[in-house]
Amino acid sequence: MKPPPRTAQNGPLRPPGSAALVAAALREDLGRGDLTTRLTVGPGVRARAVLVARRAGVASGLTVFASVFRRLDPRVRVRLLVREGRAFPAQAVLATLQGPARALLSGERVALNFAQRLCGVATLTRAFVRAAHAASRRVAVLDTRKTTPLLRALEKYAVACGGGAMHRRGLFDAVLIKDNHIKAAGSVAAAVRRARPWAACRSRSKWRTALNSKRPWPPAPTACSWTISRPRA
Q1: Residue from 2, 146, 178, 206 carrying the catalytic annotation
Q2: Residue from 73, 23, 81, 75 nearest 51 by CA
């Protein structure tokens, strides 16, 4: 399995949007500040921490893990010992940290939540990929849109770390006609007829032109629900 690409300057690539997610996660957990740490630990205390894997797995999200502490205090020094996408054994040391104790204590849970979840997704994906490749190397394991709200970029990144491939980012970049679309459109043929101009276009401007063409399109149904059916006449 090839790990995700690296850059000469930045090392392992981070998932897009991870900085905003880290900031939001810290706001959610810290609120007005880490009360317990502020009351019990002096501002000048320094500490060292080690991230140890309890079980074997595949590394993913360690760069996000590190960014949590760096955002809290740029004086924290994080050393990542396993590349993203690489397998590691149980009890492996994945990272070491050194810096102000307050930052290490305040960022611990948020950082671990990111690392544990993304490593878990990558590890399970790797298992599926290996099972598929045992049957045929031509089989690809694709992800879905069934991701945790707001964590899609991270979870799809973890799938890539595990050797999987992205199917589509969201509703905006590919056509996937499902049962409810067929019911709402009236038939498979009607759904395909409506979607076909998009497939023939290479840009949004051409797509708009296709939408505004003189071709008559069947009217959309007037009502639907999660269990979609066409309204009866």
Answers
A1: 146
A2: 81
For the chain, what is the total number of helices (H) and then of strands (E)?
A: 8, 7
pLDDT digits (tens, 9 = 90+) for 185-217: 999 999 999 988 877 775 455 545 544 554 443
Taking the alpha carbons at both ends of the chain, their separation in whole angstroms is: 55
Q: Whole-model pTM above 0.85? A: no
Catalytic (active site) residue 206: no
Quick one: 89 and 36 in the same domain? yes
Its domain, for residue 231, covers 175-233
Of 106, 131, 161, at which residue does a domain stop? 161
Residue 14 counted as domain residue: yes
155 and 221 part of one domain? no
| pLDDT tens digits along 53-76 | 999 999 999 999 999 999 999 999
**Nearest in space to 61 (alpha carbons), one of 142, 129, 116, 128:** 116
Are residue 120 and residue 191 in the same domain, yes or no?
A: no
